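Revision sheet: structure tokens.
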Amino acid sequence: MKIVRANWWKIGLVATILFHALCSAHALQQRQSVPGAQSESQLRDESASAASRQSEADRADEELKQGTTLTRRGKFKEAIPHLLAARGNVTSEYALEFNLSLCYVGVGDGPKAISILEGLRQKKHDTADVENLLAQAYVGKGQRAEALAALERAAAISPQNEKLFAFVADACTDAQDFELGLKVVDIGLRTLSQSARLHYQKAMLLTQLDQFDRAREDFGLAIKLGQGSEIGYLAAGQEALLVGDIPGGIRAAREGISKGMQNPALLAILGRALLLSGIGPGQPEFTEAQNALEKAVAERPNDAGSQIALGQIYLLGSHLDDAIAHLLAACELKPDQPSIYANLAKAYQRKGDSQRAQDALAKLESLNQAQAERIRSAPGERKASYAGGSPPQ
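Predicted:
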């Protein structure tokens, strides 16, 4: 199973980092002996040894500080060597091990993260944060039962902590395990039934499963419970796009952004909605859409929908190389999305690359045939949803 990592997931994870003041000095053992009993050579050796130990401790503390700073910034790959270098030479081993496991989750190395986190549990560090991160690691590794068990343990420790459920649901979305994500959100809604964020996440997961009528119910709850908040505007914008209300999507996104909300998902809604409204180069709305999507992609490069929309904007503006680059990035993230290949074919044709254009069209035809088969075999609600069209990407 291909795991897609997203910046909004990393930012959420960083919020759980246990950051400690890690400038501890190692105590030096002093030899109990009669004054003057040591030779100058022995004293020099012991002094050099003590200085070496102190130097190692100082280096470890510095490595840990650098690793922790990088972790807080979401630079997980860069943080790992620093954290490994500090192992065994610092007093706050728990903070080090937790941050190291977080980094391994962030780079998709579930087995290493799980090994560290299970070790922390055995050392009686079975906190809600440890269990939550362990659940995310198991999600990435495809171990559903273990993920749910860890989440239930976290929920038992901190049942009112909304982030516990939100972060694991995000991990499920990254892993494209939307059914597991629904189970996670429903666990959270047992005790947090008035959570706008969890209702919003449930609606997004239902949308991914083509259960659009059920999704609208939860979008409605998220709008009501999160009125005036970032979640409220996100829910309003997403629901508008879901039902084809393009002006409503633009209005909701603009209003939220005008109030200082720069969430990349909200920026993406604005860009996509403006694109669907039929804008063209030279219009103020075209520049508005391009700026919004560029910001969204910069903040969240692993969101396929934003990459596709920015590719379409560049294609309309005749920036063909940029368009192809973003469409290929989307292809890596979501290879079964037909709109990627439709736009790639146009871009390659305009560049005069007929072979690549034909390859893109062949892939598009294959995906369309698969979609037609799904429609024919889909039961009830899903067939009606397909007939009504999928949410725009």
